[in-house]
Amino acid sequence: MAIQRTFCCAVLASALIAGCRSAHQIRDPEFAAVEQSISQSWHSSAPDVEAKGPVFTHLEGHHPVEEFIQFALGQNPDIHAARKQMEAQAHQVPVAASLDDPTLGMTFFPEQIQTASGQQEFALSANQKLPWRGKLTTRAEVAEAQTNVARAELAAVELGTVEAVKRAYYELYYIQKAIEVTESEQGLLTEILAVADTRYKTGNTSQQDVLRAELEILNIENSLIHLRQQLESGQARLARVLHVSPQTKMLALRELPDEQAPQDLDWLQRQALSARPELHAQLAAIQRDRQSVELARLNYMPDVSLGATWIDIASAGISPVANGQDAFLINFGMNLPVYRKRLDSTVRSAEARVVSTSRKYDSLRDVTLEQVTDLFAKAKSQSDLLQLFDQDILPKARQTLEVSSRAYNVGEVDFLTLIDNWRQVLRYEVSYHRLEASLRQTLAELERVVGGMNNIGAETIPVPGEDLIPMLEQ
After folding, report:
1. Could you tell me the pTM of the whole model?
2. What Cα–Cα distance (Å) separates residue 4 from each residue in 14, 236, 324?
């Protein structure tokens, strides 16, 4: 009998040792990298220097926006965090579908119990809880729906990152163009100054014209200083989205390909309702809460517990009929779901959560339609204004400046008129490029709201619960 007890203790000790070893195994290589990074930061002599992002020289200079987008999709920390959150939730599905660990118990008798068969010296018991049929499946479906929520949120983060890259990129493009236009107009102003200086030296105008031209050149220098500061800020903003060092000198292309505003509002609205990840996340949340209602209703049914107990009986006892045969018992138990108020409240709470999530879906759907309509109108307005600038305003402003410049050379207009026309051209050209960049930023936001017109960075989300859309739209 002592040998049997020793064997049971050895088995239990082996199980504990194996469990401890398994618990310390690292199964995610990214976790190992993070652990090593944290450890190094604690022991680093200059953790602030090492924490700074690297400079990616291959990103410096003029690049199309698509290159920055692809880099951001693989590097952006928000995307990595959302992806790992989805993985963490996905690993909870098998956990929810699994039985609870069985329990193993050992009983030692300091004062041995005497029975007719002999003295009871040791007892070993094992028990397993078995949920009512359907509970494990429903729990797994709840976890799977929550995984779908995380999957849709990952797609939303990816689309948001694409939008952030485009907004920062087109802002860089505008600043570059503003610097280019300002420097070009500075050259024109230098020519005007030379004409004014010549006319002053020949006695055809006053020194006041020369001084005003010199003052305008100083104002241009002031504007260029501000624009170059904005360029560095814009590069830092793009670097943040790409998760690289702010010292990475990234630039937009000097000229961007033409981009047309969408013309079909109805298609955009349908695309948004069917593809926007945030709406998919809400549908998955509704499905999750519906399964939670079913799980709450299953709590009215009892869970069963099965077990077995082996009792070690000594080979001799006080009874003359002691046979020393070990005892083997079968255990059966179940919980009694008798506290109906608690169970009823759990079901009602789960049902209320379904209604709340459904109303949130309705609200987000309305917000989506509003955003699509607003951005569509905004993009159309910006496109029309851009066309107006390109075909009418800018040509006429340049023509006016050219005519007034020739007229000033022969003394037919004063210097203030010439400078005013020059300022108009500068303002209109900068406004044109501001409008051009704003249109592309509006289209980037519209692309995110509709779930990606080209599905850039977006993932197809199979959401159990899309059958709810007709019901929710009633």
Report:
1. 0.83
2. 15, 71, 14
